[in-house]
């Protein structure tokens, strides 16, 4: 016979909990999150069991990037208005989201070459290289490359959005303008320029950042802003490194579905830095 004195510990006791069993006309959890649409958005193209993993990993990544863009756009506006405090919180949140993006590769890496090959051909030319949100993030952080928008020419709305982001000041451009307004010597040609062009590191900008670090007690918010930018840059480098190693593990050195050389292409981006002077000055302190 079962000893009934142990049964209570085997389940969560709901006695005394005012659970709303009847929601009435109130919004439900599922309705609030539109789970009917979200959970119906996974449509593998084959009957292969492992393709669902591939679909979900990339959809989850796009959702985290959606949050990052939401925070980044607001942070740029704050910096533009000299409202650094809220921007620091937003950038810190982006860094936490980046940690989630990095961890996603650990899940995808459970996919073996044999399992991926079973459905890879169904992908056609679709590739993460075509991610509008990822490209938007790069542009808003400051990695401008006008050539990258051409792959989006079949999507007029995406193309227009990327063209706007390409032409507007990035987060780093706005931060340098902020430094100038605070009295740090940023060259004029860095404050008003053709923002479509790639950023080129400057000794004068490096000097301005050194000034911020040496005056941290006076301009603590700028010092904190500098470190938040380093966090974001560092996390992006980790994301790229994990991406490369995951691709290498799953497809080796085959070309990517988007037409790039795959691992060799990804390796080119490993040394890319959004905020180069913040790394350069570390050897000078």
Description:
The chain has 285 residues and is mostly helical. It is 56% helix and 0% strand. The protein contains twelve helices and no strands. Helix 6 packs parallel to helix 7. The chain is globular. The N and C termini lie far apart (74 Å).
Question: What would a concise description of this structure say?
Answer:
The chain is mainly alpha-helical.
What characteristics describe this protein?
single chain, about 280 residues, mainly alpha, 12 helices, about 55% helix
Number of helices: 12
Q: Specify the overall morphology.
A: globular
The number of E-state strands comes to: 0
| Range of helix content | 55-70%
Q: How far apart are the first and last residues' alpha carbons, in Å?
A: 74 Å
Structural class: mainly alpha
Mean pLDDT across all residues, rounded?
93
List the helices and strands in order: HHHHHHHHHHHH
Low-confidence blocks of residues:
none
β-strand percent reads: under 5%
- Rg calc: 24 Å
Question: Would you spell out the secondary-structure blueprint of this structure?
Answer:
Elements: H1 29-33, H2 35-38, H3 51-80, H4 84-108, H5 113-120, H6 132-141, H7 156-167, H8 171-181, H9 203-214, H10 220-251, H11 263-268, H12 276-280
Helix pairs in contact: 3-4, 3-6, 3-8, 4-10, 6-7
């Amino acid at each position: 016979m079962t000893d009934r004195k142990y049964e209570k510990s085997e389940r969560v006791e709901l006695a005394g909990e005012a659970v709303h069993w009847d929601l009435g006309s109130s919004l439900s959890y599922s309705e609030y999150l539109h789970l009917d649409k979200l959970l119906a958005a996974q449509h593998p193209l084959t009957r292969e069991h492992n393709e669902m993993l591939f679909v979900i990993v990339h959809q989850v990544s796009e959702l985290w990037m959606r949050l990052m863009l939401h925070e980044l756009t607001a942070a740029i506006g704050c910096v533009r208005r000299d409202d650094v405090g809220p921007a620091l919180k937003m950038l810190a949140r982006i860094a936490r989201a980046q940690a989630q993006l990095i961890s996603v590769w650990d899940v995808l890496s459970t996919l073996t070459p044999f399992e991926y090959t079973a459905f890879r051909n169904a992908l056609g030319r679709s590739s993460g290289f075509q991610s509008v949100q990822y490209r938007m993030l790069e542009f808003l952080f400051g990695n401008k490359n006008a050539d990258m928008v051409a792959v989006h020419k079949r999507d007029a709305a995406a193309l227009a959005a990327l063209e706007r982001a390409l032409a507007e000041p990035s987060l780093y451009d706005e931060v340098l303008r902020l430094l100038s307004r605070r009295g740090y010597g940023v060259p004029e040609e860095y404050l008003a320029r053709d923002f479509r062009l790639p950023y080129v590191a400057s000794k004068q900008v490096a000097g301005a950042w050194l000034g911020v670090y040496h005056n941290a007690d006076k301009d603590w918010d700028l010092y904190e802003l500098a470190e938040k930018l380093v966090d974001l840059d560092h996390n992006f480098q980790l994301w790229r490194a994990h991406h490369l190693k995951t691709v290498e593990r799953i497809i080796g050195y085959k070309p990517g579905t988007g037409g790039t050389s795959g691992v060799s292409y990804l390796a080119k981006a490993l040394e890319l830095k959004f905020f180069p002077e913040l790394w350069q000055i570390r050897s000078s302190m």
